[in-house]
Amino acid sequence: MCVKIMVIGAGQMGSGIAQVFAQNGYQVLLNDISTEYLDKSISNITGRLKKLVEKEKMTAETMAEILHHLEPTLDLTRAGEAALVMEAATENMEIKKKIFGKVEPYLAPEAILATNTSSIPITELASCTKRPEKVIGMHFMNPVPVMKLVEIIKALQTSEETYQMVYDITVKLGKVPVVVQDSPGFALNRILIPMINEAVYSVYESVADVKAIDSVMKFGANHPMGPLALADLIGLDTCLAIMEILHEQLGDDKYRPCPLLCSYVRAGWLGVKSGRGFYSYQ
Ligand code: CAA
């Protein structure tokens, strides 16, 4: 019998994580608060798998099998069936704590509770549960099916057994696990998001326009996409939330979010997911 996991949150990251687990033989319960979010997620995953079939990178039978491994559900109590529960909801401490509180009573005693947070302290999340030794950070990158890295973040309370199991699962998914400290932004976002913020400042201070800034980094630093296109892909609200955490917790003014980034988020220009960010996606 294959191992069952639950992914909580069917947004961009949750959908990608669910797809990767299903592609690697796990039975996946995909949970969110509305049927609309779940339908959208399954439709996005189906679209991505269809593209792989069209490119002859996957057979139609394999695609059917993967979709069979994915079960959308509104019922959080079904977390009790899972060996691993992956929280991938909005990047907000209060929302994550609320989800942890709601799901904890249903968890099997041996189940691991992992979070895909990109910057929220795992130690604090773990401390709001009665099983902190089974809480861990498992930070996937966007787009999840493509990107190899998974940052593994141990809370102060995480047991060696939990860590080893999550490390082994990550390898089984074909990803590259890298262990990092439970420090603000962990390692990837400590480096990446200030670079994106600096790119936004460069537009704000008229150093060059959006396309030029992206071209500089693509053709001058060999990045696969420019920092502003990448910000649109990550979500400008997520970039701002991470920048605010770095600023608040590390204190230095060099982490101050660019006012232009704040304005775009206030305007609802969040990037690819809202149809407009530094570029238009209509
Ligand atoms: N889902 C699944 N597959 C996708 C995809 C998606 N959203 N987007 C692209 N792909 C696949 C394509 O199907 C294609 O697959 P094949 O090689 O099998 O044909 C492959 O990726 C390459 O795609 P494209 O040819 O369309 O375009 P590209 O070569 O420009 O690659 C990209 C697109 C993979 C996104 C690349 O530009 C890239 O690596 N960009 C940087 C992404 C990055 O830095 N991500 C980390 C963000 S930080 C983060 O996520 C952490 C956080 O907490 C904020």
Automatic annotation (TrEMBL):
Pathway: Lipid metabolism; butanoate metabolism. PROSITE patterns: 3HCDH (PS00067). The keyword Oxidoreductase applies. NAD(+) binds at G9, A10, G11, Q12, M13, G14, D32, E91, K96, S118, N142, K273. It holds the Pfam family 3HCDH. It comes from the Bacteria. GO terms for biological process: butyrate metabolic process. Residues 185-281 form the 3-hydroxyacyl-CoA dehydrogenase C-terminal domain. Keywords: NAD, Oxidoreductase. GO terms for molecular function: NAD+ binding; oxidoreductase activity, acting on the CH-OH group of donors, NAD or NADP as acceptor. The record marks H139 as: Important for catalytic activity. This is 3-hydroxybutyryl-CoA dehydrogenase.
